[in-house]
């Protein structure tokens, strides 16, 4: 809709739309998109006839009515991801979602050529979630200026935090839509400490306006997740009360209730708070995933467990084998893991920050693990606590065991009575699955290769 209004259209104009389906109504914030244009975005979740009415303090925007028909989703559209079965995820239509994430913090700030290369790389990668910053990032390996900025400048060149720049936001939401079209969830990092422009030091009023604007523009994209911050505890000018308030703004303003979390550096946020849907954790000890599951009773995503690469920083020089191990250990613990890649490059084109190309050895192995997870029973794993710390099950018909840095030449399994199992030896690095002849039940010993990082899958053969 178009309307000319005096003052600042971002702050002086109120514009909301109420959508109605039978007895149900949903009120959604609209937003100003430049050139006297106001928009509202809504993602209906029920097929059938909807109506709407607009509300505004500007006459040309007020009292406009209309309707539309919500049709069945197109092939491949499973809706937004939700929490399922306490510790796991599924799309809105019930299709299981196994999070296999990666990080490209500033890929949307690199310009068309680099961004298109990132999308091409993602299209052939195993990753179905991407962590990405709304604000540009200033950090080692990423000191270039972005193409667009989220706010306009005032008369003296200072940022005007009351005026988002529609050109930036149009480009950014295009990037979110491109990920959606690839089947990739966009985990949007709303704040971060790595800043030289002042976006990390806005006052409370500017923070809140920014969050409401981001939600109004982006919440109707089905692939959005909200991450309140990357390393929230490294932002000294934000208090815990601020973070709680930010969560509440997202919780209350997002009509579609996308997933919400916040990422730590040293100290965890309290993921048990009601506005948090899942844990977003930075930690290198994936053996603690079962502990975090039980503590918070929510899905555990270890979004940062160090990165595969060879830079000098300790967090960015894991081998491909070690990154593969991290994914297996997290999955067997009943959680989910995030990848990143930080190989030295003469032009500082590191995937973890700018995107581009992947050079590491782990993505192919992560793809192999994702295939195993998706071919298994519906839903996620439950850790097996009784007799081996690196076992996981789905009911009593499907078990997956991972030996990590142990290298037994044989292992004795003690399975539930009354079931027969087929056994397979899995090499996560070589990406092979070798059937073991015979059927097994009760307590039995299997010969193993006697090398590190091997796995065994047991599947019931009786009905």
Task: Produce a short descriptive summary.
Helices cover 21% and strands 29% of the residues.
List key phrases describing it.
29% strand; 463 residues; alpha/beta; eight-stranded parallel sheet
> What percent of residues are in strands?
25-35%
- Oligomer designation: single chain
- Taking all Cα atoms into account, the compactness measure Rg is 24 Å
Q: Strand arrangement, largest sheet?
A: 16-15-14-11-10-20-18-17
What overall form do the CA principal axes indicate?
Answer: globular
Instruction: Output the structural class.
Output: alpha/beta
Low-confidence sequence ranges = none
Number of helices: 8
Helix content: 10-25%
Main beta sheet, described? Answer: 8 strands, parallel
Description:
With 463 residues, the chain is of the alpha/beta class. Helices cover 21% and strands 29% of the residues. The strands form eight sheets. An eight-stranded parallel β-sheet has the order 16-15-14-11-10-20-18-17. Strands 22-23-24-29-26-27 form a six-stranded antiparallel β-sheet. A four-stranded antiparallel β-sheet has the order 2-1-5-6. Strand 7 (81-84) and strand 8 form a beta hairpin. The termini are far apart.
């Amino acid at each position: 809709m178009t309307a000319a209004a005096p003052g600042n259209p971002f702050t002086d104009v109120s514009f909301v739309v109420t959508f109605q389906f039978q007895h149900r109504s949903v009120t959604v914030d609209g937003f100003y998109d430049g050139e006297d244009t106001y928009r509202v975005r809504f993602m209906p979740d029920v097929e059938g006839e909807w109506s709407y009415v607009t509300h505004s303090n500007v006459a040309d925007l007020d009292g406009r009515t209309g309707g539309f028909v919500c049709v069945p989703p197109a092939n491949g559209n499973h809706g937004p991801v939700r929490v399922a079965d306490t510790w796991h995820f599924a799309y809105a239509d019930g299709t299981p979602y196994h999070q296999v994430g990666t990080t490209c913090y500033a890929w949307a700030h690199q310009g068309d050529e680099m961004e298109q290369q990132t999308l091409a790389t993602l299209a052939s990668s195993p990753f179905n979630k991407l962590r990405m910053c709304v604000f540009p990032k200033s950090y080692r390996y990423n000191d270039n200026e972005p193409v667009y900025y989220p706010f306009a400048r005032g008369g003296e060149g200072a940022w005007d935090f009351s005026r988002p720049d529609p050109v930036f936001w149009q480009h950014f939401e295009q990037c979110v839509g491109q990920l959606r079209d690839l089947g990739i969830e966009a985990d949007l990092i709303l704040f971060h400490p790595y800043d030289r422009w002042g976006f990390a030091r806005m006052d409370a009023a500017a923070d809140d306006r920014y969050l409401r604007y981001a939600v109004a523009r982006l919440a109707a994209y089905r692939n959005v997740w909200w991450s309140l911050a990357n390393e929230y505890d490294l932002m000294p000018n934000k208090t815990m009360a601020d973070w709680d308030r930010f969560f509440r703004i997202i919780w209350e303003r997002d009509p579609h209730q996308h997933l919400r979390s916040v990422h730590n550096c040293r100290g965890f946020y309290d993921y048990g708070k009601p506005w948090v849907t899942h844990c977003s954790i930075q930690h290198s000890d994936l053996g603690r995933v079962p502990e975090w599951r039980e503590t918070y009773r929510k899905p555990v995503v270890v979004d940062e467990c160090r990165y595969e690469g060879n830079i000098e920083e300790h967090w960015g020089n894991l081998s491909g084998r070690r990154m593969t191990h991290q994914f297996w250990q997290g999955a067997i613990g009943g959680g989910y893991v995030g990848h990143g890649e930080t190989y030295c490059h003469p032009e500082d084109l590191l995937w973890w920050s700018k995107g581009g190309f992947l050079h590491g050895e782990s993505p192919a192995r992560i793809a192999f693990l994702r295939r195993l997870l998706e071919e298994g029973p519906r839903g996620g794993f439950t850790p097996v606590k009784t007799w081996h710390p690196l076992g996981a099950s789905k009911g009593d018909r499907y078990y997956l065991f991972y030996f990590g840095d142990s290298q037994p030449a044989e292992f004795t399994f003690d399975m539930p009575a009354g079931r027969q199992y087929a056994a397979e030896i899995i090499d996560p690095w070589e990406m092979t699955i070798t059937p073991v002849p015979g059927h097994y039940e009760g307590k039995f010993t299997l010969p193993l290769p006697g090398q590190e990082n091997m796995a065994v899958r047991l599947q019931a053969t009786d009905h």
